[in-house]
Specification:
mainly alpha; 2 domains; three-stranded antiparallel beta sheet; globular
Length: about 300
C-alpha cells in the first residue's frame, strides 16, 4: 500500500504531469472569460493569444525550478484573490466585465507563483503585457490625444496638399482647420479629420505586437532597435496612406466606398504590413547576406 502511494506521488510530481496540470489550470480563466465575452468574442483574442504563447514557451517554462512552499501559498492566495479583482477595480473602470482581463492578469501571476520559482515570471511577460496594454489602451489614447491633438490641423493641411498633388481637387481652410472639402463632380464633400482618424490605434496595436516579438526574439539589442524604429515609422506612413485612400475613395468612388475604406482599410493595411514586416524580420540574416553579396559584386 505504501509503495503504491509512493508511486502515485512520484507520478503526480513528474514533469509531464506538472506540465499538464499547469496548462489545465491556465485554461480555467479562458473558460470563465468565454461566458463574460459571449456577446463580444473579440475580447477573447488577447487571452487566447497569451495562452498560445505559454504553450510555445513550454520548454523554457519547465526549465525553471519548482516553487517552494511559502511561494506556493502566496500563489494560491493570489489565484483565489484574482476571482474578486472585479470588485476592487470596477469603481475605477465601470465598463469592465465580472470576469475579465484584470482577473486574468492576477490569476496568471498567481499560477506562475504556484508552479515555478519567481524568476519564471519573466516568461509570463508577453501574455501579461498584452493584457495590460489592451486594458489601458483607452487611457493611453486619451493621454496621447491631449499631447498630439493640437497637431491635427497641420496634418490636415499636409493631407490636402498630397491630395492636390495626386490630382484630387481638395480645399483646406484655416477657418475649419480639421476639415478638407473635396470638390467632386457631384458637389462639395466636406470631411473632418478627428483624433480617431489619424491612425493612433494602428500604431499602438503594431507597437504592442512589436514589443512582444522583440522581447521573445533572440537578436541583439541594436538589431531590435533598428527594426523597431523602421517598423514604427512605416506604420506612421501607413496611417497617412490610409487617410489619403479614404479621401480618394470618397472622391472617385463615392460615399459608400469611402465609408468602406474608412471602416476596413486600416485593418487591411495593418495586417498586410505586419505580415510583411515580421516575415522580413524572421529572414533578416538571409536578406543582409544577400545585400552584402550584391554590394561585393557591385564594387
Amino acid at each position: 500500500m505504501r509503495r503504491s502511494l509512493n508511486n502515485l506521488a512520484i507520478a503526480l510530481s513528474s514533469r509531464e504531469n506538472i506540465a499538464k496540470s499547469f496548462y489545465l489550470f491556465a485554461l480555467i480563466p479562458l473558460i470563465l472569460m468565454f461566458f463574460s465575452y459571449a456577446r463580444s468574442p473579440l475580447g477573447l483574442i488577447v487571452p487566447i493569444y497569451g495562452f498560445i504563447l505559454l504553450v510555445l514557451k513550454r520548454h523554457k517554462l519547465f526549465s525553471h525550478q519548482r516553487a517552494g512552499l511559502f511561494q506556493k501559498l502566496l500563489g494560491l492566495v493570489t489565484v483565489v484573490a484574482s476571482f474578486f479583482a472585479y470588485f476592487l477595480i470596477s469603481p475605477f473602470f465601470p465598463g469592465i466585465v465580472f470576469y475579465g482581463y484584470a482577473n486574468y492578469f492576477f490569476y496568471t501571476i498567481g499560477l506562475f507563483l504556484v508552479f515555478f520559482q519567481i524568476q519564471a515570471l519573466k516568461e509570463a511577460f508577453s501574455p501579461l503585457f498584452l493584457v495590460a496594454t489592451f486594458v489601458t489602451s483607452s487611457i493611453v489614447s486619451d493621454v496621447a490625444k491631449s499631447v498630439f491633438a493640437s497637431f491635427i490641423p497641420q496634418l490636415t493641411s499636409f493631407i490636402a496638399n498630397v491630395l492636390n498633388v495626386l490630382g484630387i481637387a481638395a480645399t483646406y481652410s484655416t477657418h475649419a482647420p480639421n476639415t478638407i472639402v473635396l470638390n467632386t463632380t457631384k458637389g462639395s464633400v466636406p470631411l473632418t479629420i478627428d483624433w480617431a482618424c489619424i491612425g493612433f490605434t494602428t500604431v499602438y496595436l503594431f507597437s504592442i505586437i512589436l514589443v512582444v516579438i522583440m522581447y521573445e526574439g533572440l537578436s541583439d539589442t541594436k538589431t531590435k532597435v533598428i527594426w523597431s524604429t523602421v517598423g514604427v515609422l512605416v506604420t506612421f506612413l501607413i496611417a497617412g496612406i490610409r487617410l489619403v485612400a479614404i479621401f480618394a475613395g470618397f472622391y472617385f468612388l463615392g460615399s459608400e466606398y469611402g465609408q468602406m475604406i474608412h471602416r476596413y482599410g486600416g485593418y487591411v493595411l495593418l495586417i498586410t504590413w505586419s505580415v510583411i514586416f515580421f516575415y522580413l524580420f524572421s529572414k533578416r540574416n538571409v536578406i543582409i547576406q544577400k545585400m552584402k553579396e550584391i554590394y561585393t559584386k557591385a564594387k
